[in-house]
Amino acid sequence: MKEDYLWDKTGENAEIERLENALKAFRYAETAPPALPRQVFEIEPEKPRRFFRLGFAFAAFAAVAVISFAVWFQLANNKIPVAQSVAATYAPPKSADQLADESVYQTPEIPAVKVVEKTRRFSQSQSVRIRRNAAPIIRPDKTVRRDIKVKELNETLTAEEKYAYDQLMLALSITGSKLKIVKDKVDGIEEKTAALDTVK
Amino acid sequence: MTGNMFFFAKSETTAAATAQKMPAPVLIVERVCAGDAEAFGELYKMFAPLVHGIILARVPRDETDDIVQEVFLAAYKNLHTLREKSAVGAWLAMIARNRAAEFYRQAKPTEELSEDLREKKNCQTEAREILAAIRALPDTYCETLILRLVEGMTGQEIAEKTGLTPDSVRVNLHRGMKLLREKLGIRE
Fold first, then answer.
1. pTM listed for this prediction
2. Are B35 and B105 within one domain?
3. Is residue B19 domain-shared with residue B80, that is, in the same domain?
4. Contact (CB<8Å) A33/B41
């Protein structure tokens, strides 16, 4: 059958065979399959890049934050006045005896307080460092006897001498208290060592 | 325990039976999707004549080999998107048709052959005339006839690989052959 040859190549058909032979030149010549790209199914080259972008964005944000903080800090410092003069002087409290003797002698007009101005940094409140070089405050209970002597001396001393005398007395009292502390410590150590010796 | 063993034995036998029942292209496609490069070679061997024939029906012969490779590369990249694995032949044929159409969209203007080259090509004149006559036929007849006469497939093979029914292929072959005879001036 002619038509069988066209369908399944059974039988004979010279005409179709001639066409086949002529067209054989165009037939597919077996070739190797194309070289496959590597890892076609792994389609995730974006992830590292996305991670990098995220890291870059974070770093940029941090840099911007630091720079803005620095700028704010600088501006805040410049807004604060560098120094504010504190005109008010600080008068030291006077003891009852001194008040009583005020009529006898006049203490010189010494600026009682030295104000050290400092620029503010973090807080709004202005801190003032006060260096006290004022006249000593003498406690009335401890200095009763001394005050009596002072009374006697005050009659012969000038105001400057009186001030120097007070300073000296203050230094002596401080030194005495320090010495007492030292003595107590030494006594305590000695007691401890004695107790340890007895234990041994 | 014995029940479980029986169940596993039964499931293995059924799996083996389904594997045997599954057509070869489906198995090959699944292996390719699993990353088996050898399976891709088998797929290429199985369907390259079909793709070649479809492209030859539309594109100049010199370009066909390159386009065949391109078709299979595109297929490899998109094979995981193929839902109906048994229709891989029809899917490849569709990619081949699209690539052929794309070739003409991107085609650059060509120059005519010189006289010497024309003389050299004279030995294939008859084959060229026949091919030109087949290309002049409607697409459905053209493709089927090229697959039959150029690629040497039987009607049944054409039907299996293109996804057409055997009856459609038979009709296309007979009507196409009739038109071709008319074009070539061949008496039945």
1. 0.51
2. yes
3. yes
4. yes
Q: How far apart are CA A65 and CA A59, in angstroms?
A: 10
The verdict on ipTM greater than 0.90 is no
| Crossing angle between the packed helical segments B61-78 and B88-106, to the nearest 10 degrees | 130
Confidence band for B33, pLDDT divided at 50, 70 and 90: confident
Is A34's Cβ below 8 Å from some Cβ in B? yes
Q: Could you tell me if residue B185 is left (phi over 0), alpha (psi between -120 and 50 degrees) or otherwise beta? A: left
Q: Establish if A160 touches chain B: CB-CB under 8 angstroms.
A: no
Show the domain range for B132: 111-188
Phi, psi for A86 (deg, rounded to 5): -105, 105
Domain's final residue, options B82, B110, B138 = B110
- Best of A2, A5, A6, A38 to disrupt the B interface by mutation (most B CBs within 10 Å)? A6
CATH number at residue B141: 1.10.10.10
Query: Cβ separation of B69 and A40 shorter than 8 Å?
Result: no
What's the CATH number where B34 sits? 1.10.1740.10
Nearest alpha carbon to residue B148 among B50, B63, B39, B47: B50
CB-based contact, B155 to chain A, within 8 Å: yes
Question: Are B88 and B117 contained in the same domain?
Answer: no
Q: Which of B41, B45, B149 has its CB closest to that of A23? A: B149
Place of tokens 């839902």: B83
Classify residue A166 as exposed, middle or buried by CB count within 10 Å of its CB (0-12, 13-18, 19+): middle
Phi, psi dihedral angles at A6 (to 5 degrees):
-65, -35
Angle between the B166-184 and A14-23 helix axes, to the nearest 10 degrees? 90
Q: Taking CB atoms and an 8 Å cutoff, what residues of chain B touch A11? A: none
pLDDT mean over B150-155: 92
Chain centre distance of CA A67: 17
